[in-house]
Every structure is written in C-alpha cells, then in structure tokens.
Amino acid sequence: MQARSSRKLSLSYAIIVAILVAFAIVCIMPFWYVMVSSFSDPQLIKEGLFKLLPTGWSLEAYRVVFRDVRFFNGLRITVLRTVIGTALALSVQTMMAYALSKKIPGRRIFMKLVVVTILFNGGIIPTYLVVQSLYLVDTFFALILPMVFNPWNVVLLVSFFAAQPQSVSESAKLDGAGEFTIFLKLSVPLAVPAIATILLFIAVRHWNELMDGVIYINSSNLKPMQVYLIELVMRSTTNTMIEPTEQSLTAISIQTAVIFASCLPILAVYPFLQRFFVKGIMVGAVKG
Amino acid sequence: MKKNLYALVSLLLVCAMVLGTVTAATAEEEDRPRIVILTSINVDTEGTDVNDNDYINYIRDTIGVDIEFINDGTNQYRQKMNTMLASNNPPDAFMLMDVTQRTDLARWAEEGMLLPLDDYLAEYCPDLLASIKDEAWEVTKYDGKIYAVPFQRYDSTPYLTFVRKDWLENLGIDPDDVKTIDDWYNMLKRFVTDDPDGNGIDDTYGIVSTSSGTHLTNSYFKDSFGAARAQVVDGELLPNYMLDGYKEWLKFMNKLYEEKILDPEYIVNSGSQMWEKVASGKYGMFLWFWGLQEYLSKGLDREDLVAMAPPLREDGSEASYIYSSPNRHMMAITADCENVEAVLKFFNWSCTEEGAIFLYAGLEGKDYDIVDGTIVLREDRKGKNLGWRQLTLGVQQPNVDQEPIKSILAQSFGELGMEHLALATKYGAYNDLDLFCPIFEELSQYDFDKIVSEYTDKAITGQVDIDATWDEYIQNLRQMGGDLKIQLSTDWYNNEYNK
Question: Is the ipTM beyond the 0.85 threshold?
Fold first, then answer.
C-alpha cells in the first residue's frame, strides 16, 4: 500500500501521466473540434469564432444532413457492407487459417501463395479489370468480394491456430468429432481474442474504405458513406469555384455534422471489442 | 449449431434483399438514345440524386436523349477516369478537369481514345460554335484537332481589385486619378500613413492577401510590369517568370512589403484569416474574384468598395488582370461512343436560348415565374443551383451580356455585381502564349512552379537580395529544365506564328 502511494507521488509517474494526457488531448482534439463545430451556429463558425464549447448552439447542420437522402443511403450501404462483408471475410479467413495451421498436403505451397499476395498486388487497373470481367462492377458485391481474403489476417490467425495444443483436437477426434466440429466447437472458441481482433480489423476497414466505392461503383444508390463524405468535403471548393453566390449554410458546419454522425456507429463498437483487441494482437505477435 | 444456422439464413436473406434493391433500381429502359457521361457534379443537389431530379429529367424530356451520369464528386475523380478509360467499357463522354486536364487530353488523344470533333461540330453544333470563343477552343486542341468541348466560364477572367470607398473619400482621393504604378503606390502609402479610418492610431495597411489557394498576391500589378505573360526576347520565348519585368515586379512588391503597405502576414494568412482582416476594416485593398462570395458572406456590402482597373504599364499602355484559362473543364467524347450525335445534341442545347435560360434561371414554376412576359426569379431561388445546372450540362452559354440572360443574372447579383462582372471581363486577359503552348511530355519531370514560387516568396519578403540573386535564380531555372522548356516552346512559337 505504501509502495503504491509513493509510486503515485513520484515525479516520473507524474511526467508519464502528463505525457499520456497530452497525447490523449492531441488525439481527442480533432474529434472534439468536429463535434463542437457541428453543434455551433454556422454563421459564427463561418466567421472563425471557434471555442472549446459550442458557440451559439445550433442543430441546423444536422437538420440539413438528415434531410439528405444520400446520407441515409450511404449509411445503409456502409452498414450492410460492414455486416455482410465482415461476416463473410471472417468465415473465409478463419477457415482458411485453420486449414493452413494443420499438416495437410501442399500446406507450404498455399502459405507461400498467401505471403506472395502480401508482397505483390495487381494495382488498381488490373484489379478493376478482374472485377469487371466477373460482372461485379456497379454491384453491391464489388464492395464485398474483393475484400473477402486478407493475407495479413490469415497469417495472424494461422499462427494462433497452430499454437493451440494438438492434444485437444486429437482427444476430440477420439470422441468422434469431425474436423468441422473441432473447428467450430474447439478451435474457434479458443481463438476468440484473435478472431475478435481480426473482426475489428475487417469491420473498421469496411467502414472506412473509400476507393472501392469510387472505382467500382457508378450508381448513386450503391455508393457507401465514405464516398458521400469525401464528396461533401470537396463540395465547398467546387462551390466557390463555379458558383460565386452566397451559400445559406457554411460548408464546414455540414461537413463536421456528417463526419460526427458517421463516426458514431463504428466508435460504438470499440468498447465491446477493445478488451480482446490488445490481447489478440500480442498473442499473435509473440507466437508467430 | 442451431444458432449458427439462424445466422447463416439471416445472412442469405440480407444478401437477397440487397440484390433485389440493385436489380430493381437498374431495370429502367427507354427507347430514346442513351448516353453515359462520366462527370464530377460536386455541388449541393438539394439532397437529390444527380440522375433523378427535376433538372436532368427536364433536359432528358426536352432534347429526347436519355442521359445517365456516372458521377464522382471525390478528389479521386482522375483515378476513376483513368480506370474507366483503361477498361473495355468506357463512357460515351467524360469530363477533363483540374490542372492536369490538358496533359490528360493530350495523352488520351495520342492513344486514340478520343474522337476528333472538328467535322462533327460543324454538322451538329452551330450554337456551340457561335457561342464559345476561339481561345477556349484553342485549349482543347491536340495536334491541330479539337478533341473536347470546352466549358468556357461566363466570367472567363474573374479577377478584380477592390478598394475601400470610405478611405478614398476620407483621404480625398479620386479613384479615376489613380492610373500609373506611382499613383497606386502613393495611394497605398497614404492608406498606411494618413490614418484613413480616422481613429488617430497608426494601425492601417494598404493590401491584404493570402498565399493559400491560387496565391493571389502573385497577381497584384504583375502585368503592369510586363511580368505576367510569356514574351519573345532575343529569339527565345521566355516564360513570364524569367523576364526582366518579373525582377522589377519583385522589387516593387518587396518595397510594398518592407513599407508595410502589403500585409506583413500575407505569407501565413489562410483564406479565412484574410477575410477576417478585410472585415476588420484595417486594410485598404484586395484582389479577388468579382463575385465576392466570401466578402458578402461576412455581411459586408459590395457598395462599400470601388473596383479599379490595373495600373498602366510604364509605356502608358493598359495592363490586365491575368487569369489562367477561359475554361473550367472540357468534355471529351470517347472513340468508342456509338451516339456521338446525341452527345453533341446535348452539349449544343446548352448554348441555345432555351438551354441558357434553363442554366441561368432554372425551371419555370420551380425557380422562376413569367410575369408580364419577363422571367422573374423567385426570391428564395436567386443564385441557387447555378453550379449544379452548370455541371449537369457540362457545357454552358458563356455570353451573358445579352437578353434575357443579362436581366436574369442581374436579379441574382444586383446591378453593381453585373458592373463588376463587366469590369472583370474588360480588365481580364490570359498569358496567351503560355496558355496555347502545347503540353510537352519531355517537361513532365520538372517542377518549375516550385522553384518560382519559392524564389518569389523569398524575394517579396526580403529573405534574398533580388539584385544579387536574380542571375543565380535564372541559371538555376535554366539548368532545372528551363532551357529545354524554352527550346521546345520557342520551336512551337516559330512554327505557329513565325512561318
């Protein structure tokens, strides 16, 4: 107890806390700025009157954003691609990693093929041609299928599955369990920290992905949220350039409102998965 | 196991729902010719889809062409354009935009991806040819052929200098008497020394500016020193930033900076800081787009400003405000297009009277009403959605000094705004030889702008002695690709103008 209180009071501890608090502020400030700007009076924001708390509280920007059918359409597509894409990618990657963790014929060749795709990729135009020849361009599955396989995640999971004791699956086999039952009932539950981490990786990547929405999608009703967001951020520049008239609502208010509204759902997922997150990464790293 | 089964079934149901939405949305088919245009309509569309709104539906019905946009309003437009053109299913037409538009046009034309339009234009586009000026077409040429339809700005030279009217009155300066560079210098000097705002404190400046965006500080007075346009000197076509006039201009700007006539913080001012300073009432003059959007959005009044002509050159000839190009973007047609006539019919319609009224006024019953045979914009629709309609059309009627367009614009911008537009057009010009000079692939590895802007900033702010370093700057430019640029552009000039 005494040791603990002296640690609390020590100078080095105070310095560490101060540095961590400073880093936390640096991380939080941009998000805070976005939030405060979105709730402030658009006219005051236009005049550059930004404070730490909203100036002239206003929900006008949110009214404009929630009136825009494209916001909800983008949100719908992003939620769908995140849910379906994550479920599909997680299933494929987990099963592949499980198979590659076993001593099956050709395992080394398959592993090499996986690693090659980490080192080399086809580039945007060849990948587009593949997606196009599979008739996926301008379909929802163009957002899902190209991201189903991720070699990094597979390598991470392989090392995790390989580290599981062989004796567990052997005893299950003696009890009559098939390979799929062992995978589903034993290996997956034992690998939950790693799988939760990969799930977060995939989900966040789906949520944030911009380029596939830009390149593969032509129809407005299939464009994900990130495309809508970047269009909105770019909009103010175009307006000034082409339409020299007064805008009723400042662009920064709308932009910040959309960014804040679109960040919230994915942020809400973090607290539930965070406890697995660090553990998963560490285990994979050490045992890989 | 049962739980997993439920999860799988749910997943399949969601997939089916998504597929259903996709196929239902793309099931529309009509008889009229269909064209697909890759574009970047990145303005507020009042929450509607670019392919389904009153404006595009009106155009479709009026010209009888089923237009479909592939719209990318992100900063990745060029990537999208490159990818689509490299695929085996390019759009019928597409927008070439931003600073790379001429390089891209040259590249695609060279590769045979674009349709030469000269013969088609003569056949299908009488209104386009009558409305768009020669220099706008000139920029769309490659190897002597027209490969795109230009979107010529209606304010094709938009810059103008504005001076505070109350300061001129307080100091007894008649703006009509301010003509030469010396007159301007004396006026600006008095803005700093003679307490033009009458508060008894030495807190005023002559010019406010910013280095962000297009760095308009580099446009002040330049043409008055003969430093804004490429010129032939001793048989070489030299870019403006290598001329002796440029050196003189730098020295003049440095003098303004040293005497605090030019805002000492101009180099670090952001765009919004500049407008805050304008609103503070402590700065006498600024150069900006005639539309004054940012100024008006501060609640300031256009009536409080006097628009000025640029100072005369040393020889007494009139100078101009130099702008980069008459075109915002260009619309090219791909070589694979099967409905060239329909695409050109659409572009040509933009320059008919019907198309121009649609562009500048919008739709009857939505944006305007006809009162006693005159178009009257609705109060809440004045100046609204012009950018949206401009980008939807891709091409516009740029001649706004004719009726009924002139009256329609006046309703949006006011009489004084229209005067400012006319002055911006009158005092505006281009760096012609630089604008019309083709893009040379050999120069793509050199970054002249970086060298020039660095030296310019250092020279104006007094970090380098201009007389002592000018020769070194020129030598450096020549070594870093300048000699090659001069040689290529001089050859082009001699071929084009000195045959």
Answer: no
